[in-house]
Specification:
The protein is an alpha/beta fold. Helix content is 22%, strand content 17%. The strands form three sheets. The protein has a six-stranded mixed beta sheet, with helices on both faces. A three-stranded antiparallel beta sheet has the order 4-5-6. The chain has a two-stranded antiparallel ribbon with strand order 9-10.
């Protein structure tokens, strides 16, 4: 179907690659106890889905950017159909903390950098292919719950004005594509709120994510699995994963085993 991302190559010749960056030890911030459990769980999940996982630990923001640039240039992407980009660290509203971070402004990797390194201009090998971004980090210090009344009357959202493209314009480009497309992103929490982690069993978000992928990757597309992850937090009001900056043009089925 034209509505589903294709898998062109057989499993034997396909070269799926995934990137996993996890910061555990910091110079000025607390150690992320339990994070190694998340790494092991995600590695096992991704390897089971046919990805070779490049794992990097304890990087500064510049180190993370360099690793992403190198990974975006991997020749294996040309014979792959997709990639996973997994990030785990302390975080603030502006992005992910590097190992030298002291506060909300020092050694911070902007989330925008992820999309810049893997957009269709900088990573041609993944043009038209799903790029799944998983981010486990706090995005602020607020708790993600609020007490509400059954009589609350939320205001209706104001529709944004449509952006019209002027008619009659031409250019000499051979082929024009979206600068940024085919991303599917799931953050561990909504903006400005915390994400919760056990020092023994790891992050709640990663636990729920792995469970939903294992149970539903065989019959659900990526965004439906993301929705199931979000739904699984229904009885934990302190945290809610958030789909953001998703630009999937088709449905992405992982087809485990194929």
């Amino acid at each position: 179907s034209s509505q589903i991302y294709p898998i062109h190559l057989p499993r034997e010749t396909r070269t799926r690659r995934a990137l996993l960056i996890c910061n555990i030890e910091f110079e000025h911030l607390s150690r992320r106890d339990g994070a190694e459990v998340d790494v092991e769980g995600m590695m096992k999940l991704l390897e089971g889905l046919g990805y070779v996982v490049d794992v990097h630990r304890n990087l500064t923001s510049q180190g993370m950017a360099t690793v992403m640039k190198d990974f975006a240039n991997c020749k294996e992407h040309w014979t792959s159909d997709s990639t996973f980009l997994v990030f785990m660290s302390h975080g603030v509203r502006a992005g992910l903390c590097g190992t030298k971070s002291k506060d909300e402004t020092t050694d911070i990797l902007s989330v925008d950098t992820i999309y810049e390194k893997f957009n269709n201009k900088c990573c041609r090998a993944l043009l038209g292919k799903p790029k799944v971004v998983i981010i486990q980090s706090c995005r602020g210090g607020k708790v993600g719950s609020v007490m509400v009344s059954d009589s609350a009357d939320p205001a209706m959202p104001t529709p944004g004005s449509a952006h019209a493209i002027p008619a009659g314009l031409e250019d000499d480009a051979i082929c024009e594509v979206h600068l940024e497309s085919d991303f599917g992103t799931l953050h561990s929490s909504t903006p400005d709120t915390v994400s919760w982690r056990s020092s023994v069993t790891g992050s709640l978000f990663i636990q729920h994510l792995i469970e939903q992928f294992r149970n539903h990757a065989c019959n659900s597309d990526l965004q439906e699995i993301f929705r199931k992850v979000q739904y699984s937090f229904g009885k934990f009001p302190q945290q809610l994963p958030s789909q953001e900056r998703t630009t999937m043009l088709r449905k992405f089925y992982l087809f485990p085993g194929h």
